[in-house]
Amino acid sequence: MPPSSGKNKSAEFKPAPGLLPWQVLLLFAVIGLFYPQYPLPALLTACLLLCSSLGTGYRARPAFLVAVIVVFMLGLLLSLNDSSVVSPRIPDWMKARKKVEILGAIHRVSPKPNNRLQIILKGMEFRSPGAAKFQVLPGRCVWTWDQPAFWPAPGQRVRAGLRLKPIRGRQNFGAWDPRRFWGRKKVRYRTYSKGGKTDIEILGPVPVSWSWRMSLRETVLRNTGEGPGQGLLLALLMGDRSKSSYQTLDLVRRASLAHSLALSGLHLGF
């Protein structure tokens, strides 16, 4: 059988298939979601996608163009209704930075470097000075407790005198936006405390699973020497970075070991 010529080869060439109509519409909906936060890149992407889509005959029909506009507007409306960009109403006592009595349930406890705890409070209530009853405070609060005297457990309740501040975003273009980050977690306020405060009271029993976790943590600390190695071992075994310092973590990143530890952390732990 004679070999095929170059002309036959070019005739057999088939271009890669394009996107289906529903796939194009899905991309336009995603572009609408990103438009409020990144307007210029979203517009450029939409123009490029529209130009490439109009190259095919069936996508140049008016019905397809109307569908593109509809799904783009739907994505835009969903983004504008995002609760993470809604600014909470700031009470007068919060504007004046007054300390109030807070009552809330502990949703999550995350150990952070330099012996800090990041505690998420939900179902919050507050009582301003001189008030007789607690009032509901919508949203959650992130509480940073530096050098805690003890560790509360998720599921317990806390009663404390704290100063709350609203979560605010940064104005740096393209930088990390803490208001959006915490807003997606329904967190609207933040607070800070240090040391063993006498006005912090933890209510409710400790869950059994948390007791086991604390027992394992104490066993690890008791059988290892203090230092950076202890902090890294505790982080690898339990995800607990409270015994690590930011300087140690920075050295791990600068030595390009962060990715290796992330991949092999489970094996090193065992």
Can you tell me about this structure?
With 270 residues, the protein is an alpha+beta fold. It is 41% helix and 20% strand. It has ten helices and eight strands. Strands 1, 2, 3, 4, 5, 6, 7 and 8 form an eight-stranded mixed sheet that branches. It is extended. The mean pLDDT is 81.
How do the strands and helices of this protein lay out in sequence?
Layout (H helix, E strand, L loop, with lengths): L5 H7 L8 H14 L4 H15 L8 H19 L11 H4 L4 E13 L3 E12 L7 E2 L3 E7 L10 E6 L2 E2 L11 H6 L3 E8 L5 E4 L4 H15 L5 H11 L7 H9 L3 H12 L1
Parallel strand pairs: 4-7
Antiparallel strand pairs: 1-2, 1-5, 2-3, 2-4, 5-8, 6-7
Task: Provide a concise account of the structure shown.
The protein is an alpha+beta fold and 270 residues long.
Mean pLDDT: 81
Radius of gyration: 27 Å
Q: How many helices does DSSP assign? A: 10
The amount of beta strand, in percent, is 15-25%
Structural category is: alpha+beta
Task: Tag the structure with descriptive keywords.
alpha+beta, 8-stranded mixed beta sheet, 20% strand, extended, 8 strands, 270 residues
